[in-house]
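Hey, can you fold this one?
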Amino acid sequence: MKLRPVLLVLLILTGFYYLTTRFMPTGALAGLMHRPADLATTSSVRGPLGNFGITQADAAPAFDSEEQQNIAVYKRALPSVVNITSTQMACCDFFLRPVPEQGQGSGFILDKEGHIVTNNHVVDNAQTVEVTLWNKKKYKAAVMGIDRNHDLALLKISDATDLQPATLADSSNLVVGQKVYALGNPFGFSGTMTRGIISAIRSVAMPSGNKIDDAIQTDASVNPGNSGGPLLNSRGEVIGITTLIATNPNAPVDQSAGIGFAIPISTAKAVLDDFARYGRARRPSLDIVTLPIGPDIAEQIGLPADNGILIERVLPGGAAEKAGLKGGNERAQMGNTIVMLGGDLIVGVDDTPVSTPQDLTNVMNRHHAGDVVVLNVFRGQKKLNIRVTLADAKQVIGT
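Sure. Predicted structure:
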Protein backbone atom coordinates (compact mmCIF):
# COMPACT_ATOMS: atom_id res chain seq x y z
CA MET A 1 0.00 0.00 0.00
CA LYS A 2 2.83 2.40 0.79
CA LEU A 3 4.30 1.93 -2.71
CA ARG A 4 1.08 3.00 -4.50
CA PRO A 5 1.59 6.83 -4.15
CA VAL A 6 5.22 6.47 -5.26
CA LEU A 7 4.24 4.46 -8.33
CA LEU A 8 1.53 7.02 -9.18
CA VAL A 9 4.04 9.89 -9.09
CA LEU A 10 6.50 7.94 -11.25
CA LEU A 11 3.75 7.19 -13.76
CA ILE A 12 2.79 10.91 -14.01
CA LEU A 13 6.42 11.99 -14.47
CA THR A 14 7.01 9.31 -17.14
CA GLY A 15 3.92 10.44 -19.05
CA PHE A 16 4.95 14.10 -18.88
CA TYR A 17 8.45 13.26 -20.16
CA TYR A 18 7.04 11.20 -23.04
CA LEU A 19 4.60 13.89 -24.14
CA THR A 20 7.11 16.75 -24.03
CA THR A 21 9.84 14.88 -25.87
CA ARG A 22 7.53 13.17 -28.36
CA PHE A 23 5.14 15.94 -29.36
CA MET A 24 6.93 19.24 -28.48
CA PRO A 25 9.90 20.49 -30.48
CA THR A 26 13.20 20.72 -28.69
CA GLY A 27 13.50 23.97 -26.76
CA ALA A 28 9.77 24.81 -26.87
CA LEU A 29 9.57 25.16 -23.08
CA ALA A 30 12.85 27.04 -22.97
CA GLY A 31 11.26 29.51 -25.38
CA LEU A 32 9.21 30.83 -22.46
CA MET A 33 12.45 32.25 -21.12
CA HIS A 34 14.47 32.78 -24.29
CA ARG A 35 13.78 34.22 -27.74
CA PRO A 36 12.47 31.50 -30.06
CA ALA A 37 14.93 30.45 -32.72
CA ASP A 38 12.58 31.48 -35.53
CA LEU A 39 12.82 35.15 -34.45
CA ALA A 40 16.56 35.26 -35.05
CA THR A 41 18.93 34.38 -37.86
CA THR A 42 22.54 33.28 -37.67
CA SER A 43 25.07 34.28 -40.28
CA SER A 44 28.76 33.65 -40.67
CA VAL A 45 31.42 36.14 -41.69
CA ARG A 46 34.83 35.03 -42.93
CA GLY A 47 37.82 37.30 -42.64
CA PRO A 48 41.54 37.50 -41.91
CA LEU A 49 40.93 36.62 -38.26
CA GLY A 50 38.81 33.59 -39.03
CA ASN A 51 35.07 32.90 -39.03
CA PHE A 52 32.64 34.90 -36.89
CA GLY A 53 29.09 33.79 -36.17
CA ILE A 54 26.49 36.53 -35.67
CA THR A 55 22.99 35.85 -34.35
CA GLN A 56 20.69 38.73 -35.21
CA ALA A 57 17.06 39.39 -34.31
CA ASP A 58 14.70 39.46 -37.28
CA ALA A 59 12.59 42.24 -35.72
CA ALA A 60 12.75 44.66 -32.81
CA PRO A 61 11.11 43.28 -29.67
CA ALA A 62 7.83 44.74 -28.47
CA PHE A 63 8.13 47.34 -25.69
CA ASP A 64 6.78 46.37 -22.30
CA SER A 65 4.20 48.54 -20.54
CA GLU A 66 6.79 50.47 -18.53
CA GLU A 67 8.84 51.27 -21.62
CA GLN A 68 5.72 52.33 -23.47
CA GLN A 69 4.88 54.78 -20.69
CA ASN A 70 8.40 56.23 -20.70
CA ILE A 71 8.26 56.72 -24.46
CA ALA A 72 4.79 58.27 -24.31
CA VAL A 73 5.87 60.80 -21.66
CA TYR A 74 8.95 61.74 -23.68
CA LYS A 75 7.07 62.17 -26.96
CA ARG A 76 4.37 64.26 -25.31
CA ALA A 77 6.66 66.58 -23.36
CA LEU A 78 9.71 67.00 -25.63
CA PRO A 79 8.24 69.59 -28.06
CA SER A 80 7.48 71.96 -25.16
CA VAL A 81 10.99 71.83 -23.62
CA VAL A 82 13.60 74.39 -24.68
CA ASN A 83 17.31 74.94 -24.26
CA ILE A 84 18.29 78.36 -22.92
CA THR A 85 21.69 79.98 -23.48
CA SER A 86 22.43 83.18 -21.58
CA THR A 87 25.41 85.42 -22.30
CA GLN A 88 26.92 87.96 -19.95
CA MET A 89 30.16 89.90 -19.90
CA ALA A 90 32.83 88.70 -17.49
CA CYS A 91 36.19 90.15 -16.65
CA CYS A 92 38.70 89.92 -18.20
CA ASP A 93 41.10 88.86 -20.94
CA PHE A 94 44.87 89.54 -21.06
CA PHE A 95 44.20 93.13 -22.11
CA LEU A 96 41.64 93.64 -19.29
CA ARG A 97 38.76 93.67 -21.76
CA PRO A 98 35.37 92.14 -20.81
CA VAL A 99 34.83 88.75 -22.38
CA PRO A 100 31.49 87.02 -23.00
CA GLU A 101 30.60 84.13 -20.74
CA GLN A 102 27.78 81.70 -21.50
CA GLY A 103 25.50 79.69 -19.24
CA GLN A 104 23.09 76.91 -20.11
CA GLY A 105 19.72 75.93 -18.74
CA SER A 106 16.32 74.59 -19.66
CA GLY A 107 12.76 75.85 -19.75
CA PHE A 108 9.34 75.01 -21.10
CA ILE A 109 6.78 76.71 -23.33
CA LEU A 110 3.81 78.18 -21.50
CA ASP A 111 1.59 79.27 -24.40
CA LYS A 112 1.45 79.73 -28.16
CA GLU A 113 2.32 83.43 -27.76
CA GLY A 114 5.90 82.39 -26.95
CA HIS A 115 6.04 82.76 -23.16
CA ILE A 116 8.60 80.46 -21.55
CA VAL A 117 9.18 79.60 -17.89
CA THR A 118 12.64 78.95 -16.44
CA ASN A 119 14.73 79.64 -13.33
CA ASN A 120 15.83 83.16 -12.56
CA HIS A 121 19.40 82.00 -11.98
CA VAL A 122 19.52 80.71 -15.58
CA VAL A 123 19.10 84.24 -17.01
CA ASP A 124 20.20 86.43 -14.08
CA ASN A 125 22.34 89.39 -15.22
CA ALA A 126 22.35 88.15 -18.82
CA GLN A 127 22.97 90.61 -21.64
CA THR A 128 21.41 88.29 -24.22
CA VAL A 129 19.22 85.20 -23.97
CA GLU A 130 18.76 82.68 -26.77
CA VAL A 131 16.15 79.91 -26.83
CA THR A 132 16.55 76.75 -28.91
CA LEU A 133 13.42 74.72 -29.57
CA TRP A 134 13.30 70.94 -29.86
CA ASN A 135 13.40 71.29 -33.68
CA LYS A 136 16.73 73.21 -33.39
CA LYS A 137 15.21 76.57 -34.35
CA LYS A 138 16.78 79.45 -32.39
CA TYR A 139 15.15 82.68 -31.18
CA LYS A 140 16.25 85.71 -29.20
CA ALA A 141 14.31 85.96 -25.95
CA ALA A 142 13.31 88.91 -23.80
CA VAL A 143 13.08 88.62 -20.01
CA MET A 144 9.53 89.70 -19.14
CA GLY A 145 9.58 89.15 -15.38
CA ILE A 146 11.67 87.68 -12.58
CA ASP A 147 10.98 86.52 -9.04
CA ARG A 148 14.23 86.06 -7.14
CA ASN A 149 12.42 84.84 -4.03
CA HIS A 150 11.14 81.78 -5.88
CA ASP A 151 13.96 81.59 -8.49
CA LEU A 152 11.53 82.00 -11.39
CA ALA A 153 11.73 83.93 -14.66
CA LEU A 154 9.32 84.52 -17.52
CA LEU A 155 10.76 84.86 -21.03
CA LYS A 156 9.15 85.61 -24.40
CA ILE A 157 10.17 84.76 -27.94
CA SER A 158 8.58 86.34 -31.01
CA ASP A 159 7.66 85.10 -34.48
CA ALA A 160 7.82 81.43 -33.48
CA THR A 161 5.16 79.21 -35.04
CA ASP A 162 3.65 75.85 -34.13
CA LEU A 163 4.64 76.15 -30.49
CA GLN A 164 3.43 73.32 -28.27
CA PRO A 165 2.66 74.50 -24.71
CA ALA A 166 3.34 72.22 -21.77
CA THR A 167 0.39 70.92 -19.76
CA LEU A 168 0.54 72.07 -16.13
CA ALA A 169 -0.77 69.79 -13.39
CA ASP A 170 -1.75 70.49 -9.77
CA SER A 171 1.13 70.00 -7.34
CA SER A 172 -0.87 70.41 -4.11
CA ASN A 173 -1.55 66.67 -3.70
CA LEU A 174 1.77 65.07 -4.59
CA VAL A 175 2.71 61.83 -2.84
CA VAL A 176 6.11 60.49 -1.85
CA GLY A 177 6.83 57.46 -4.04
CA GLN A 178 5.05 58.94 -7.07
CA LYS A 179 6.89 58.36 -10.36
CA VAL A 180 8.43 61.47 -11.95
CA TYR A 181 10.46 62.36 -15.04
CA ALA A 182 13.02 65.16 -15.47
CA LEU A 183 13.43 66.55 -18.98
CA GLY A 184 16.03 69.10 -20.00
CA ASN A 185 19.53 69.75 -21.28
CA PRO A 186 22.06 68.55 -18.68
CA PHE A 187 25.61 69.62 -19.59
CA GLY A 188 24.14 70.89 -22.87
CA PHE A 189 22.92 67.45 -24.00
CA SER A 190 19.53 68.48 -25.34
CA GLY A 191 16.38 66.41 -25.00
CA THR A 192 17.59 64.26 -22.10
CA MET A 193 15.03 62.45 -19.93
CA THR A 194 15.65 60.71 -16.61
CA ARG A 195 13.21 58.94 -14.32
CA GLY A 196 12.79 58.53 -10.59
CA ILE A 197 10.31 59.06 -7.79
CA ILE A 198 9.31 61.84 -5.41
CA SER A 199 11.62 61.24 -2.45
CA ALA A 200 10.17 63.89 -0.12
CA ILE A 201 8.25 67.15 0.05
CA ARG A 202 10.25 69.61 2.15
CA SER A 203 11.39 73.21 2.51
CA VAL A 204 14.93 73.83 1.27
CA ALA A 205 17.23 76.83 1.28
CA MET A 206 18.71 77.97 -2.02
CA PRO A 207 22.27 79.32 -2.36
CA SER A 208 20.79 82.84 -2.39
CA GLY A 209 19.42 82.26 1.11
CA ASN A 210 15.78 82.25 -0.03
CA LYS A 211 13.65 79.26 0.91
CA ILE A 212 11.51 77.08 -1.35
CA ASP A 213 8.42 75.92 0.54
CA ASP A 214 7.19 72.40 -0.25
CA ALA A 215 10.01 71.76 -2.70
CA ILE A 216 9.77 68.44 -4.54
CA GLN A 217 12.79 66.26 -3.74
CA THR A 218 13.52 63.58 -6.32
CA ASP A 219 16.12 60.93 -7.09
CA ALA A 220 15.62 61.41 -10.84
CA SER A 221 19.09 62.32 -12.11
CA VAL A 222 19.43 66.08 -12.64
CA ASN A 223 22.62 67.94 -13.46
CA PRO A 224 23.80 71.45 -14.40
CA GLY A 225 21.76 72.43 -17.45
CA ASN A 226 18.57 70.82 -16.13
CA SER A 227 17.76 74.03 -14.20
CA GLY A 228 14.45 75.51 -15.30
CA GLY A 229 13.30 72.33 -17.03
CA PRO A 230 10.07 70.54 -16.20
CA LEU A 231 9.57 67.77 -13.67
CA LEU A 232 6.75 65.63 -15.05
CA ASN A 233 4.24 63.13 -13.72
CA SER A 234 3.49 59.82 -15.45
CA ARG A 235 1.04 61.58 -17.80
CA GLY A 236 3.67 64.01 -19.05
CA GLU A 237 2.19 66.96 -17.12
CA VAL A 238 4.43 69.50 -15.37
CA ILE A 239 4.36 69.21 -11.58
CA GLY A 240 7.55 71.15 -10.84
CA ILE A 241 10.46 73.20 -12.18
CA THR A 242 13.90 71.72 -11.58
CA THR A 243 15.98 74.27 -9.71
CA LEU A 244 18.59 72.80 -7.36
CA ILE A 245 20.78 69.75 -6.86
CA ALA A 246 22.62 68.46 -3.84
CA THR A 247 26.18 68.03 -5.11
CA ASN A 248 28.86 65.55 -4.15
CA PRO A 249 31.64 67.60 -2.51
CA ASN A 250 34.25 65.03 -3.58
CA ALA A 251 33.28 65.14 -7.25
CA PRO A 252 35.51 67.13 -9.66
CA VAL A 253 32.45 69.07 -10.92
CA ASP A 254 28.94 69.66 -9.68
CA GLN A 255 26.91 66.64 -10.66
CA SER A 256 23.91 64.63 -9.56
CA ALA A 257 24.15 62.98 -6.15
CA GLY A 258 20.68 61.47 -6.41
CA ILE A 259 19.05 64.44 -4.65
CA GLY A 260 17.43 67.12 -6.78
CA PHE A 261 14.77 69.70 -5.97
CA ALA A 262 11.99 71.29 -7.99
CA ILE A 263 9.76 74.29 -7.36
CA PRO A 264 6.14 73.05 -7.15
CA ILE A 265 4.19 74.14 -10.20
CA SER A 266 1.36 75.51 -8.04
CA THR A 267 3.82 78.08 -6.67
CA ALA A 268 4.92 78.93 -10.21
CA LYS A 269 1.28 79.36 -11.30
CA ALA A 270 0.71 81.85 -8.49
CA VAL A 271 3.82 83.83 -9.51
CA LEU A 272 2.71 83.81 -13.15
CA ASP A 273 -0.69 85.13 -12.07
CA ASP A 274 1.13 88.00 -10.33
CA PHE A 275 3.05 88.74 -13.53
CA ALA A 276 -0.22 88.87 -15.45
CA ARG A 277 -2.00 91.08 -12.88
CA TYR A 278 0.74 93.45 -11.76
CA GLY A 279 3.66 92.99 -14.16
CA ARG A 280 5.83 91.73 -11.31
CA ALA A 281 5.81 89.12 -8.53
CA ARG A 282 3.69 90.08 -5.54
CA ARG A 283 3.59 86.91 -3.50
CA PRO A 284 1.75 87.32 -0.21
CA SER A 285 3.60 86.92 3.06
CA LEU A 286 2.67 86.70 6.73
CA ASP A 287 6.22 87.81 7.63
CA ILE A 288 6.76 85.07 10.18
CA VAL A 289 9.29 82.36 10.98
CA THR A 290 7.47 79.12 11.76
CA LEU A 291 7.88 75.63 13.16
CA PRO A 292 5.61 72.76 12.01
CA ILE A 293 3.97 70.95 14.92
CA GLY A 294 2.95 67.28 15.06
CA PRO A 295 1.28 65.24 17.81
CA ASP A 296 4.53 64.26 19.57
CA ILE A 297 5.83 67.84 19.85
CA ALA A 298 2.38 69.16 20.74
CA GLU A 299 2.14 66.72 23.65
CA GLN A 300 5.66 67.51 24.89
CA ILE A 301 5.08 71.27 25.10
CA GLY A 302 1.42 71.15 26.09
CA LEU A 303 -0.23 72.65 23.03
CA PRO A 304 -4.03 72.53 22.69
CA ALA A 305 -3.95 71.09 19.14
CA ASP A 306 -2.10 68.08 17.74
CA ASN A 307 -1.09 69.79 14.47
CA GLY A 308 -0.43 73.32 13.32
CA ILE A 309 2.17 75.97 12.51
CA LEU A 310 3.87 77.50 15.55
CA ILE A 311 5.05 81.09 15.14
CA GLU A 312 8.65 81.27 16.37
CA ARG A 313 9.21 84.90 15.35
CA VAL A 314 7.29 87.78 13.80
CA LEU A 315 9.39 90.00 11.55
CA PRO A 316 9.67 93.68 12.56
CA GLY A 317 7.20 95.87 10.72
CA GLY A 318 5.68 92.89 8.92
CA ALA A 319 2.10 91.76 8.40
CA ALA A 320 1.97 89.52 11.48
CA GLU A 321 3.35 92.16 13.84
CA LYS A 322 0.89 94.77 12.53
CA ALA A 323 -1.98 92.33 13.13
CA GLY A 324 -0.87 91.62 16.71
CA LEU A 325 0.35 88.04 16.28
CA LYS A 326 2.85 86.82 18.85
CA GLY A 327 6.16 85.02 18.36
CA GLY A 328 7.96 82.73 20.80
CA ASN A 329 9.53 83.95 24.03
CA GLU A 330 11.15 80.77 25.36
CA ARG A 331 14.31 79.20 23.94
CA ALA A 332 14.38 75.43 23.67
CA GLN A 333 16.55 72.84 21.95
CA MET A 334 14.96 70.37 19.56
CA GLY A 335 17.61 67.91 18.46
CA ASN A 336 20.49 70.08 17.26
CA THR A 337 18.24 73.08 16.58
CA ILE A 338 17.36 75.99 18.85
CA VAL A 339 13.67 76.93 18.57
CA MET A 340 11.47 79.56 20.17
CA LEU A 341 8.35 78.33 21.97
CA GLY A 342 5.40 80.20 23.39
CA GLY A 343 4.15 81.88 20.20
CA ASP A 344 0.74 81.68 18.55
CA LEU A 345 -0.20 78.35 16.99
CA ILE A 346 -1.85 78.68 13.55
CA VAL A 347 -4.44 75.95 13.01
CA GLY A 348 -6.47 77.48 10.17
CA VAL A 349 -6.89 80.28 7.65
CA ASP A 350 -10.43 81.53 7.01
CA ASP A 351 -11.66 78.41 8.86
CA THR A 352 -9.75 76.13 6.47
CA PRO A 353 -7.65 73.75 8.62
CA VAL A 354 -3.89 74.20 8.40
CA SER A 355 -1.76 71.43 9.88
CA THR A 356 1.41 71.44 7.74
CA PRO A 357 3.61 74.02 5.96
CA GLN A 358 2.26 72.67 2.65
CA ASP A 359 -1.30 73.49 3.78
CA LEU A 360 -0.24 77.06 4.55
CA THR A 361 1.56 77.38 1.20
CA ASN A 362 -1.51 76.13 -0.65
CA VAL A 363 -3.63 78.80 1.06
CA MET A 364 -1.08 81.54 0.29
CA ASN A 365 -0.97 80.50 -3.37
CA ARG A 366 -4.67 81.34 -3.63
CA HIS A 367 -4.11 84.90 -2.41
CA HIS A 368 -2.23 88.06 -3.36
CA ALA A 369 -0.41 90.73 -1.39
CA GLY A 370 -2.98 93.10 0.08
CA ASP A 371 -5.64 90.43 0.62
CA VAL A 372 -7.14 90.16 4.11
CA VAL A 373 -7.33 86.72 5.71
CA VAL A 374 -8.48 85.55 9.13
CA LEU A 375 -5.96 83.36 10.96
CA ASN A 376 -7.41 80.81 13.39
CA VAL A 377 -4.82 80.56 16.18
CA PHE A 378 -4.33 79.31 19.70
CA ARG A 379 -2.66 81.71 22.13
CA GLY A 380 -1.98 79.48 25.10
CA GLN A 381 -5.25 77.59 25.53
CA LYS A 382 -7.42 80.36 24.11
CA LYS A 383 -8.57 80.24 20.48
CA LEU A 384 -8.55 83.55 18.58
CA ASN A 385 -9.49 84.76 15.10
CA ILE A 386 -7.07 87.46 13.92
CA ARG A 387 -7.44 89.51 10.72
CA VAL A 388 -4.19 89.93 8.79
CA THR A 389 -3.50 92.02 5.71
CA LEU A 390 -0.99 90.01 3.69
CA ALA A 391 2.26 91.79 2.91
CA ASP A 392 4.31 91.75 -0.28
CA ALA A 393 6.99 89.07 0.05
CA LYS A 394 9.65 91.38 -1.38
CA GLN A 395 9.18 93.61 1.67
CA VAL A 396 10.17 90.91 4.15
CA ILE A 397 12.98 92.28 6.31
CA GLY A 398 14.59 89.00 7.29
CA THR A 399 14.03 85.31 7.89
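Residues 152 and 268 are 7 Å apart (CA to CA). Let me know if you want another pass with a different chain boundary.
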